[in-house]
């Protein structure tokens, strides 16, 4: 699906960055909140309202009118930073990984093989391999009295 090497590198870099943001960002935010709670006795207010610039915030008149877009924006800004760090990077990481995996025979075979990563391959022999023997050693014959 991805034809260009540079596009493949960009998608791989984006996937790696999203993975780092997801793991490190959510872990560090959780540790920050825990230490803040242990030291000061209250949970910190880490809603996006405190992080987003004032120009992006809807004014009170728009919220009072009941505009659907303003309400949706207020709902999104009212979520905690940790919630966003736990939900958004995996949702963005999924298309990147599917695009990278699609180079292995198309999207549907990639999804099928991803769904069963531990499926058994070709059957292997059971047990240990037999010891090799040299022919004629240890054999006895009753023929000719030997």
Would you kindly provide a brief summary of this structure?
It contains 5 helices and no strands. With 146 residues, the protein is mainly alpha-helical.
How would you describe the overall organization of this protein?
The chain has helices spanning 5-40, 60-65, 68-77, 81-101, 107-115. With 146 residues, it is mostly helical. Helix 1 (5-40) packs antiparallel against helix 4 (81-101). The chain is elongated, with a radius of gyration of 31 Å.
List keywords for this structure.
single chain; 146 residues; mainly alpha; 5 helices; 56% helix; 0% strand
Indicate the radius of gyration in whole angstroms: 31 Å
Helix-strand category: mainly alpha
Q: Could you report the average pLDDT, rounded to the nearest whole number? A: 75
- The parts where pLDDT drops under 50 for at least 5 residues are none
How much of the sequence lies in strands comes to: under 5%
Distance separating the two termini: 73 Å
Q: Layout of helices and strands, plus pairs?
A:
Elements: H1 5-40, H2 60-65, H3 68-77, H4 81-101, H5 107-115
């Amino acid at each position: 699906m991805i034809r260009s090497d540079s596009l493949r590198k960009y998608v791989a870099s984006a996937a790696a960055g999203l993975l780092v943001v997801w793991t490190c960002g959510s872990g560090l935010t959780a540790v920050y909140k825990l230490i803040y709670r242990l030291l000061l006795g209250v949970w910190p207010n880490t809603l996006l309202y405190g992080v987003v610039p004032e120009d992006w915030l809807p004014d009170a008149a728009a919220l009072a009118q009941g505009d659907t877009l303003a309400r949706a924006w207020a709902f999104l800004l009212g979520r905690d930073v940790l919630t966003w760090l736990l939900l958004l990077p995996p949702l963005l990481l999924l298309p990147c990984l599917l695009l990278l995996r699609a180079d292995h025979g198309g999207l549907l075979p990639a999804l099928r093989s991803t769904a069963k990563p531990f499926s058994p391959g070709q059957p292997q022999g059971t047990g240990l391999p037999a010891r090799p023997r040299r022919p004629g050693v240890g054999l006895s014959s009753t023929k000719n009295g030997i």
